[in-house]
Write a structure and sequence with these properties.
Chain A has about 350 residues and is of the alpha/beta class. Helices cover about 25% and strands about 30% of the residues of chain A. The longest helix of chain A has 20 residues, at about 95-115. Helices cover about 40% and strands about 15% of the residues of chain B. In chain B, helix 3 (about 70-85) packs parallel to helix 4 and helix 10 crosses helix 13 (about 360-380). Classes of the chains: A alpha/beta (about 350), B alpha/beta (about 400).
C-alpha cells in the first residue's frame, strides 16, 4: 500500500533508517529536515539538527532517491521550545524540551506541512510503537521493542489525532538492528554516534543558556533546611534540581542534598539524603491516552525521568490532576518534569509535576 | 509526471550544440594550451578562438578577457584584485545592498582586512539609489561594484549612469553581469564598466567556467600565483572544454538576443498576468520595466515560500525561494528585505526563472498548479487544530 509520508530527518542513523524502511516498503517518502537554531551561534557545537546533520540527511535522501527539503524552524523553535524551556528553569522547574518539540513541532507544525503536501503521516526515528485498537480510531502508544532505547517517554503528550498521523518505523527494531540495517543499505550514517542531551544546548550546558536568557534565575539566594534555618548561599536556583548533591558548597556533618527549590523566595531547601525521598507526587495537565478518566485508583508503573527507573505506583485521578503514590519512597522530582504512566508496554498517560506555587491544598 | 524547470537563474541545462562543441576537447584534443607540440597548439587555438568569441560578444578586446572558474571567482578577483592594487590610493569601496553573496561576502572579508565598504541602498523596485551612491563617494574611494541585473528580482541597474558618475571622479567600476549576459545586450563600452563578471552556466554553458573582463590599463592584482596563463592574472591550466563550451553558448545567446529575450518576456508576462488575475493577495517584486525578461518574483500573502516550493516540486515544478544555501535551508532574502518588504512578504516569495527550454505549456501548467496549491495552503492552518485536542474526555 503506497502512502505519502513525510519523514523528519535529522541526519542521524535512526531517522535515516526510518526513511529507508518506509521507502523499501513502497511508500512515497518525502524527507524533511527541520532547521533549528545553531547552538554554535550561542556557544560551541550542536548535537543534531544542525547544518551538518542536514547535509547527512540530504546525502541519505539522495542515496535512497527520495526528495529532501529543509524547513526553517529556527524562529518557531526559539518561540515554542527554547523560550519556554528557559522560563521554566527561571521558575525553578526542570522542563523537558523534547516532549514539547515532538508535540508542537514534529507532530504539530510539521504535520501541518505534511498534510498540506497531501501526506497522511509524519514519521520519525523514535523508538516507540503504535498499536492498533479496535475500540477507538486512534492507535495506542507502546514502548519501543528495544527497552534500552525506548523513547515513548518523549511521546506521551501526543494527542489521539497526532498518534493517528504518526509512524515510528524503527520502533520494532533494536538500535543494533537499526545500525545493521543502515550498514546493509550502505547509508553513510551507519556508524554515526547518537546525539546526546538536548539538541540546542551547547557544551556550556543548559546552565549557560539559561544564564544568558534569564539572568533573574541567577541571583544569589539562601540555602535553608526544612526548618527554615539558613545554611549558606547559592548562586542561582536554575543551577539546581532536587536530589542534587554537587555544587551546594555547604559543609555539614552529613552530606547535604537539594530537597526542593522555592522560586518565590529564591531559596534552595537542602537536607540529608533521607529527605530527598518522597512517597507521593502531584501531577498537572494529566492525559489519559484511552480518553477516559479512571474513576478508581489505578495500579501501574511510572517513569519520572527519561533515563529513570520504572517504579510501581498507584495513581488517583483528579480531573486534570493526578496524585501518584509510590509503592516505596522514590527520589523527589523537580516541578515541570514529565511523569509517564505505563502498563507493561503500553503508555497509559502522563502529566507534569506540579509547580510549588500551585500547591494550595 | 510533467517536469517544468523554472530555475534558470540558478543554473541552466547545457545546450546540445554546446555539448557537442565541447566533447572533442575531453579526449580527442586533450592538449595543454601551454604545451609547445601540436596537441598543445590545437588547444591553444581553441582557447584563443573562444577568447575572441567572448570578447566579440561583449564588445571587448580579446586581451581584456580572462577565463576563471565562474562567477564567484570573477567577482572575488575583480573586487579583491582592484582593492589590493589600489590600496595605496585608498581603501574604500562602494557596493549595493542587493549584490550576490559572491560580492557581498568578498566585501565583508575586505572589511576584516582593514578596508572600508559602503553599502548603498535600493528603492522598493530594487533600483540603486544614485543620490546615496554620490553621497558615499569619498576621497579614498577606489571602486564601485554594482550588479547589472539582480538574481532574485531581475531589476536592471543603471550601470551606464553609475559608470559616468564614477569616472567623473576617477573611480573604477565593476559589474557582476552573471544574470544579465544572454538575457539582454551586454557591451562593455555601452555600460562604461572597467570590470565585468560572467558565468557560462547561466546561459546554457557548462558549470565551472566563467570570465572576467578587465579593461586595459585597469590596476589589478591576481588572487592566485603560478604559471603565466591568462597573462599570469589567472594561472593554472586552462579548462579548454569549458572555455569552448562557454564561448559556444555565449555566441548562441548573443545571436539569439533579438528573439529569445522577447520570447521569454512574453511567457513571463503571461505567467505574471495569470497569477495577478487568478490568485488574490499577491505582489510582484522587482521593477516593472527595467527588469530581465526571464525573472518573475512574486510574494504570495499568507503562505510560506518553503511550503509552496515543496508543494510545487512534488507536482514537478522547480522554482526557488530566496537564495539557495548549502544545506537547502534558505535565509530570508537580503534582496527583498533591502527593497523594504516586510518579513512575512519576503518569506512568502517565489522566484520563477525562465530559460531556453521554457514553453507556453509550462506556463499554463505552472499557473494552474499554483492556483490549486496556493489555494490549498491558504485554506490549511500551519498546525492542525486537532493536534491540541486532548485525549481525555472530562
Amino acid at each position: 500500500m503506497s502512502r505519502r509520508v513525510v519523514v523528519a530527518m535529522s541526519g542521524g542513523v535512526d531517522s535515516s533508517v526510518a526513511a529507508a524502511l518506509l521507502h523499501t516498503q513502497g511508500n512515497e517518502v518525502i524527507g524533511v529536515g527541520l532547521r533549528f537554531p545553531d547552538a554554535a551561534k550561542t556557544e560551541g557545537q550542536v548535537a543534531c539538527c544542525g547544518i551538518a546533520g542536514m547535509e547527512d540527511a540530504r546525502q541519505v535522501s539522495a542515496q535512497l532517491g527520495i526528495p529532501f527539503y529543509v524547513l526553517d524552524y529556527r524562529e518557531v523553535f526559539e518561540r515554542e521550545v527554547i523560550e519556554p524551556f528557559c522560563r521554566a528553569y527561571a521558575r525553578g522547574e526542570t522542563p523537558n524540551p523534547c516532549i514539547l518539540c515532538n508535540k508542537r513541532l514534529k507532530f504539530g507544525r510539521l504535520l501541518g506541512a505534511a498534510l498540506a503536501l497531501g501526506a497522511e503521516f509524519v514519521a520519525t526515528g523514535h523508538y516507540a510503537r503504535l498499536g492498533a485498537d479496535s475500540d477507538t480510531d486512534h492507535p495506542w502508544l507502546l514502548k519501543g521493542s528495544d527497552r534500552e532505547h525506548d523513547q515513548s517517554y518523549f511521546l506521551y503528550a501526543l494527542t489521539p489525532y497526532q498518534r493517528a498521523h504518526a509512524l515510528f518505523p524503527v520502533g520494532d527494531l533494536t538500535k543494533s538492528q537499526v545500525r545493521a540495517t543502515a550498514a546493509r543499505l550502505g547509508l553513510p550514517v551507519a556508524d554515526k554516534p547518537g546525539s546526546q542531551d538536548i539538541c540546542f544546548v551547547g557544551p556550556g550546558g543548559y546552565r549557560s543558556l539559561v544564564a544568558a536568557r534569564e539572568p533573574a534565575a541567577w541571583r544569589t539566594g539562601p540555602i535553608i533546611d526544612s526548618a527554615g534555618r539558613v545554611l549558606g548561599q547559592h548562586r542561582g536556583i536554575a543551577g539546581f534540581t532536587p536530589g542534587q548533591r554537587k555544587g551546594l558548597g555547604v559543609t555539614a556533618r552529613e552530606p547535604l542534598y537539594v530537597i526542593a527549590l522555592d522560586p518565590s523566595h529564591n531559596a534552595i531547601i537542602a537536607g540529608p539524603e533521607e529527605e530527598t525521598l518522597t512517597q507521593t507526587l502531584l501531577l498537572q495537565d494529566v492525559q489519559w491516552l484511552d480518553g477516559v478518566l479512571p474513576s478508581r485508583p489505578v495500579c501501574l508503573t511510572v517513569k519520572a525521568r527519561y533515563r529513570g527507573p520504572e517504579v510501581l505506583a498507584e495513581v488517583h485521578s483528579q480531573g486534570t490532576y493526578a496524585r501518584v503514590y509510590y509503592a516505596t519512597p522514590q527520589p523527589r522530582v523537580a516541578p515541570g518534569q514529565a511523569v509517564v504512566f505505563y502498563q507493561a508496554d503500553r503508555v497509559l498517560g502522563g502529566g507534569t509535576v506540579q509547580t510549588p506555587t500551585q500547591v494550595l491544598s | 509526471m510533467r517536469r517544468v524547470y523554472l530555475d534558470h537563474s540558478a543554473t541552466t541545462p547545457v545546450r546540445a550544440e554546446v555539448l557537442s562543441a565541447m566533447l572533442p576537447y575531453f579526449a580527442d584534443h586533450a592538449g595543454n594550451a601551454s604545451s609547445l607540440h601540436m596537441a598543445g597548439q590545437r588547444a591553444k587555438k581553441a582557447l584563443e578562438e573562444a577568447r575572441n568569441a567572448v570578447a566579440r560578444a561583449l564588445g571587448a578586446d580579446p586581451k581584456e578577457i580572462y577565463f576563471t572558474s565562474g562567477g564567484t571567482e570573477s567577482d572575488n578577483q575583480a573586487v579583491i584584485g582592484v582593492a589590493r592594487a589600489q590600496s595605496l590610493r585608498g581603501r574604500h569601496l562602494i557596493t549595493s545592498t542587493i549584490e550576490h553573496h559572491a560580492v557581498l561576502n568578498t566585501c565583508r572579508w575586505l572589511e576584516s582586512q582593514g578596508f572600508q565598504v559602503s553599502y548603498v541602498p535600493v528603492d522598493q523596485h530594487g533600483l540603486l539609489d544614485l543620490d546615496a551612491l554620490k553621497d558615499n563617494i569619498r576621497g579614498d574611494t577606489v571602486l564601485i561594484s554594482c550588479m547589472l541585473a539582480n538574481n532574485e528580482v531581475g531589476t536592471i541597474e543603471p550601470l551606464a549612469e553609475i559608470a559616468r558618475l564614477a569616472h567623473a571622479r576617477g573611480l573604477l567600476v565593476h559589474t557582476d553581469a552573471v544574470q544579465a549576459v544572454g538575457k539582454m545586450p551586454v557591451r562593455v563600452d555601452d555600460l562604461g564598466v572597467d570590470l565585468l563578471s560572467l558565468a557560462a552556466h547561466k546561459f546554457c554553458g557548462p558549470k565551472g567556467i566563467g570570465a572576467l573582463y578587465v579593461r586595459r590599463g585597469t590596476p589589478i592584482e591576481p588572487l592566485l600565483y603560478g604559471g603565466h596563463q591568462e597573462w599570469a592574472l589567472r594561472p593554472g591550466t586552462q579548462n579548454i572544454p569549458g572555455i569552448v563550451g562557454m564561448a559556444t553558448a555565449l555566441r548562441l545567446a548573443t545571436d539569439e538576443l533579438s528573439i529569445e529575450p522577447p520570447r521569454l518576456g512574453a511567457l513571463r508576462d503571461q505567467l505574471q498576468q495569470g497569477i495577478l488575475s487568478r490568485i488574490p493577495d499577491v505582489q510582484v517584486n522587482g521593477h516593472s520595466t527595467s527588469r530581465l525578461p526571464s525573472i518573475l518574483n512574486v510574494s504570495f500573502g499568507g503562505v510560506e515560500g518553503e511550503s509552496l516550493l515543496m508543494a510545487l516540486d512534488i507536482k514537478g515544478i522547480a522554482v526557488s525561494t530566496g537564495s539557495a544555501c548549502t544545506a537547502g535551508a534558505t535565509d530570508p532574502s537580503h534582496v527583498l528585505r533591502a527593497m523594504g518588504l516586510e518579513r512575512a512578504r519576503a518569506d512568502g516569495s517565489l522566484r520563477f526563472s525562465l530559460g531556453h527550454t521554457t514553453t507556453e505549456e509550462d506556463m499554463d501548467y505552472t499557473l494552474q498548479t499554483l492556483v490549486e496549491v496556493v489555494g490549498r495552503l491558504r485554506s490549511m492552518s500551519p498546525v492542525p487544530a486537532a493536534c491540541f485536542e486532548e485525549s481525555t474526555k472530562r
